[in-house]
Structures are given as structure tokens and as C-alpha cells.
Write a structure and sequence with these properties.
By secondary structure, the protein is an alpha/beta fold. The protein has eleven helices and ten strands. It holds the Pfam family LysR_substrate.
Length: 301
């Protein structure tokens, strides 16, 4: 194995093994059936062998799957116990995390149940800043900020790099008969985030230079831009984190495969004092473990 499986994938396999069905596992984990199936598929990609096989309308674990489920349960028990014995004490109290709105809505909030299952006595508060790179609120314990990494006198650690590419709804592309060459994009309704910079950079990387971008809609929030793209209002610049779930579900498609690395990235930002707290270090460790799986998944796109 070149990478480690995610905790959620291990929990999905363990639940299917113990409860006997995808439906029962989904109910216990508070996920959809398709989400549980997807977790099992991702785990199979990691381990390199089949964990399940079809049986009538349901599934059964293979022999290797059964053995791996037993080891998964053991590993989860060790991780849970280790988390609860952080310095000899269970992690309790309150943790306040601020996350850039688009990432919070389309990615982070989809995974929080995994963290709270490991730390059930820790109260987690999630908020969003007015602008993605704002780290000025001293009441926040940890920021997941989107910026250039320049936050003086702060603990700063890059979480994940971002790749940018155009996204639109399938119906939008069908309505306009496709796009063809990137130069044709300037004649279509473009959706911008904060300003026109991302579009100008992407177009220039695709040989479309010195273009006058007239019209379009400029949004202050990635939530708005992506929601507009999903509903067919135009073409937006998406990324491998905020747009990933919508791409998986077919709500968005990529009219061009070309992507560029964003000059900005997502960073963990905190004060040097707060980052040493057990609840903050626990969240950072969990988040980085989750991100490693996500990064490998989106690198294959």
C-alpha cells in the first residue's frame, strides 16, 4: 500500500461486517447507502483487493474482506483508545474552528461525524470568516484559511494545494452546444469569485491572453459561485476541494481537463500557544489524516 486508508472507510467496512448490510451500516453511520458503498470502494483501491462480492440484491464480504474487517475493528479500537488517553486524559471542553465558507460547506461539514465519534465529549464549534484569509478573531482556536501563507506571528501550516479549472452544469453545456476552444469562453456567461483574476490566469495558461472580460457575475463567496454554476447560470472556476463532491455526483462537469495550480492554498493557522492544546492538536492530526486520503483521490482526476 502506497497510502493509508481513511478512518471513515475502515468504519464503513467494520459496520458492514458487523451489521450484515450496506443499509444497516448507512443508518448507523448516518450516511447514505451510496456513501457507504463509495467508502468501501475507496478502501478496496487502497488495499488492492476485493472486500465485497454481490449476493442476490445485497453484498457479502469476501474471505479477505472478513479478515480485513477484523483487523480494521482492532485498529479502530486502538485509535479510539489512544485518542481518549491523550496525555492520560480524555479530550473534553470546546474547540472553535473557523473554515473558509466554500470548503466548510462543500467538504468539511461532510466529514465532521468521523471526528466527533472519536472525541464524543468535545464540543465542536464551526464558523466562517467574512473573507477566506481573515484570522483576526482571537476567540477562534484554529483557522482553516485560504490565502498566500503570510500570517506573521502565527502558527502556519499548509494543509492542501489547490488546482483550478472551469466547471459548469451538464445542462448548461448541452444548452450552449459545448464550448470548443478556450477562447470561446469569453462569449459565455462567466462566474467570478471576488474578482476576475482566476479566470484571467486560467485563460492565459490556455493561450487566451489580453482578453477583455466584459459582463459576467462577481460573487463574494465560493458558495454563491458554485451554487450558480450547479443551477446552470454560467461557468465558474472550480477547484479540487470545493467542487469535488459536485463533480462526483454529476452536478458539475469539467468542459476542459486543463487545470492550473492556484497561487493560494488552504492553511492551518493558529496562535503558537493554542496549537499546543490537546483539542487543537487532535483536530489537526485528524484533519491531516483525512486530507492525505483526499489529496491522493483528487490527484487521480
Amino acid at each position: 500500500m502506497k497510502r493509508l486508508p481513511s478512518i471513515m472507510s475502515l468504519r464503513a467496512l467494520e459496520a458492514v461486517s458487523r451489521l450484515g448490510s450496506i443499509s444497516s451500516a448507512a443508518q448507523e453511520l448516518n450516511l447514505t447507502r451510496s456513501a457507504v458503498s463509495h467508502q468501501i470502494q475507496m478502501l478496496e483501491e487502497v488495499v488492492g483487493f476485493a472486500l465485497t462480492q454481490k449476493s442476490g440484491r445485497g453484498i457479502l464480504l469476501t474471505q479477505k474482506g472478513e479478515r480485513y474487517a477484523v483487523e480494521s475493528k482492532r485498529a479502530l479500537s486502538i485509535l479510539t483508545e489512544a485518542a481518549r488517553e491523550n496525555n492520560g486524559h480524555e479530550v473534553t471542553g470546546k474547540l472553535t474552528v473557523s473554515c473558509a465558507p466554500g470548503l466548510a460547506n462543500y467538504w468539511l461539514c461532510h466529514h465532521l461525524a468521523e471526528f466527533t465519534s472519536i472525541y464524543p465529549k468535545l464540543t465542536l464549534h464551526i464558523s466562517s470568516p467574512v473573507v477566506p484569509d481573515d484570522t483576526s478573531n482571537d476567540e477562534i482556536d484554529l483557522y482553516i484559511a485560504y490565502g498566500n501563507g503570510n500570517w506573521p506571528d502565527k502558527y502556519v501550516r499548509q494543509l492542501i494545494t489547490i488546482r483550478l479549472f472551469p466547471v459548469c452544469s451538464p445542462n448548461f453545456l448541452k444548452k450552449h452546444g459545448g464550448v470548443g476552444h478556450p477562447a470561446n469562453l469569453v462569449n459565455l456567461p462567466l462566474l467570478h469569485l471576488v474578482n476576475q483574476t482566476d479566470w484571467r490566469v486560467w485563460l492565459a495558461a490556455n493561450g487566451v491572453n489580453n482578453t477583455q472580460l466584459e459582463g459576467g457575475i462577481i460573487f463574494s463567496d465560493a458558495n454563491f459561485a458554485q451554487s450558480a454554476a450547479i443551477s446552470g447560470q454560467g461557468i465558474a472556476i472550480g477547484d479540487n476541494m470545493v467542487s469535488g463532491d459536485a463533480l462526483d455526483k454529476g452536478l458539475l462537469i469539467r468542459p476542459f481537463e486543463k487545470s492550473i495550480e492556484s497561487p493560494r492554498a488552504y492553511y492551518l493557522v493558529s496562535s503558537p500557544e493554542k496549537v499546543e492544546r490537546p483539542e487543537v492538536s487532535a483536530f489537526i492530526a485528524w484533519l491531516e489524516s483525512l486530507i492525505s486520503d483526499v489529496q491522493a483521490r483528487y490527484d487521480r482526476r
